[in-house]
Amino acid sequence: MPQKRWIDKSSNKPLQERTYVKCPHCNTYHDSRTWSLIRAFGNWFGIYCPNCEGIIPSPTNIGTYVILGITYPLWFWYKENLKQRWLRMQKKRFSGQQIRMLDFSKKLWLIIGQIWGALMFLTMNLIYWNVETPMKDLITWLVGGLIFGGLMILFMGYKKKKAQLK
Known about the structure:
This protein has 4 helices and 5 strands, in the order E-E-E-E-E-H-H-H-H. It is mostly helical.
């Protein structure tokens, strides 16, 4: 996640589709979904800018500093080598085929809801073993998943209307 994000308030698209990340080095605005899916992981030194090959800073907090302070003796000696290796890996990740971005306008909510329902069914059956009504429980959790997915798309795709000044 970058330190700063810009949101297009004039668009009616879902929040994810109107959020942009600005590179402080080349001043390019990137679609925030550029770092979704498999590019979402491994951003140890920040977010990689595919335009100028710079590093877009990530947010830090007290927890970050505590972990860095505790692990400092382990990584300090290798920091520059690790950073150069990471940059080479990022160039490879972004030089290949363009990775498709998540499209929240399609039926993604349905898939996410059903996955949530199936995971809840499995989790609850492991915790509260109920051999008498497994099909009833499965149907209940899948319907709950549909409700969860529907609410998620409502809230994620919802854009507040600006109050008009009189």
